[in-house]
Amino acid sequence: MSIRKLGLSQIQGSLVALDHCEGVSNEEMVQIQLKDGRRRSGRVVQIQGDKAIIQVFEGTDEFSKTDTKTKFLGHPMELGVSKEILGRIFNGLGEPIDDLGPVFVKNYEDVNGRPLNPISRQYPRHYINTGISAIDGLNTLIRGQKLPIFSGFGLPHDQLAIQIVRQAHLTGEDADKFCIVFGAMGVKKDVADIFQKAFEETGVMEKVCMYLNLADDPILERMMTPRVALTAAEYLAFEEHQNVLVILTDMTSYCEAVREFSSTLGEIPSRKGYPGYLYSDLASLYERAGIIQGGKGSVTQIPILTMPNDDITHPVPDLTGYITEGQIVLDRDLFMNGIQPPIGILSSLSRLMKDGIGEGYTRKDHQSVANQLFASYSKVQEARSLASVIGEDELSETDQLYMKFGRQVEEVFIGQKGDDRSIIETLDLAWALLAILPKEALDRLDDDLIKEYYHPQRAQNVIDLARKGVV
Questions:
Q1: Would you tell me which CATH number, out of the four given (1.10.1140.10, 3.40.50.1820, 3.40.50.300, 2.60.40.350), belongs to the domain 365-468?
Q2: Which residues form the ATPase F1/V1/A1 complex alpha/beta subunit N-terminal domain (predicted)?
Q3: pTM above threshold 0.70
Q4: 1: pLDDT confidence band, cut at 50, 70 and 90?
Q5: Do the beta carbons of residue 100 and residue 88 sit within 8 Å?
Q6: Positive or negative, the Cα torsion across 29, 34, 37, 40?
Q7: Can you tell me the distance from the alpha carbon of 357 to that of 136, in angstroms, rounded to the nearest whole number?
Q8: Which of 91, 195, 290, 316 is at a distance of 20 to 30 A from 365, taking alpha carbons?
Q9: What is the mean pLDDT of the chain?
Q10: In the chain, % of residues over pLDDT 90
Q11: How far apart are CA 239 and CA 228, in angstroms?
């Protein structure tokens, strides 16, 4: 049953307060009518006794304490969904902004998500091929996983997101049941246009659903954007049986909106001014990834966040790392050296990788060759440290081989410059790079694998083709 009220007791910024609001619930949607008949929407964000605090989506300009009519709708914010949302572009509240008219609505879903019993979760197994060797080969993305990308201001995380959307696909029987939900928060108009144009020009827009919150949009819309995007993803996954990849950028903009909103409410700040509940707030978003036992769909998340001053201990990446299952870290030094995408493989990690690769998933040598590539590349850093002291010419022959190996890994394996590689091409390239090193240096590989895949005589040809974009 809806409740109607006349007048307001307080107006402060985007917040309004009403007294004597018995029976009102937190998160309840509200419709507000101005004196001239125009309507605005909002939601209850706090209840203090019988007082309701409402945040108005469109702001409180021209509001009157005496003539404003408020109607409590009796339900939380809901998103109208159907399979027709694919190929469409919406604002952060789920309203179409692509001039293609309204979407046929099959269901209305609560944007706060469905409570998911942990016992009903199925352990993630199968991998998603992004076509990016540094991810597929060394930090494999698994269906149902939440794997964030840690970036910094000025680093090309937007280009990486576009590349993932353009290239990501599944293998196996359900390869055609794959779609992407893309949520952008606090982006500039020109960046939003770049996303849209890139998806349309590469022909992937028909499998993409976009939710765009621009930098000049209200912060309340920014706070709702990831919830709206994840609600759409849950519907596509659990009702339409799609395997959904959700890309959310930039989670730091979302967290700053939460901080601003918390300050407006007068809440006591915690670390760097963020509210103390930021951890649980982020968890309420990230934990919406997963697979339900007996279901045919999945929700996989790649949240992208920018680290202020490249500080990985900042509250946003710090808390995100606690909740998610690894991270892909963009390296500024690689970026300054022209490596694209500049993924720092030693600081990146996919905790679920081991359970979705190997025989039956990718190839039997995947885990072993990834371990060897990690171990060998870590020795490159030792050789570089030594070279900075005594000079590269004074290094031993083995250390000089490691220096060459490190350059090739960065230029050819990590640096793809937009190329799309299959998992087999990625693994073959890894073996070709390891062939730069002597066989006795491959201490993470057993003899059978070395005999089958270690072919120094063919290695340079594979590397040359990879450098040209053809593996």
A1: 1.10.1140.10
A2: 9-65
A3: yes
A4: low
A5: yes
A6: negative
A7: 10
A8: 290
A9: 89
A10: 52
A11: 16
Pick the CATH number of 4-75 from 3.40.50.720, 3.40.50.850, 2.40.10.170, 2.40.128.260: 2.40.10.170
Query: What residues are paired with 141 via a beta bridge?
Result: 128
Structure token digits, residue 157: 């995380």
Task: Map out the domains of the chain as residue ranges.
Answer: 4-75, 79-355, 365-468
Angle at 107 between CA 104 and CA 112, to 5 degrees: 120
User: Which residue pairs, CB below 8 angstroms and at least 24 apart, start in 319-324?
Assistant: 319/278, 319/279, 319/282, 320/148, 320/150, 320/251, 320/282, 320/286, 321/148, 322/279, 323/146, 323/279, 323/282, 323/283, 323/286, 323/287, 324/146, 324/147, 324/148, 324/286
CATH dotted code for 79-355:
3.40.50.12240
pLDDT band at residue 471 using 50, 70 and 90 as cut-offs: low
Q: Which of 104, 53, 59 is nearest to 83 (CA)?
A: 104
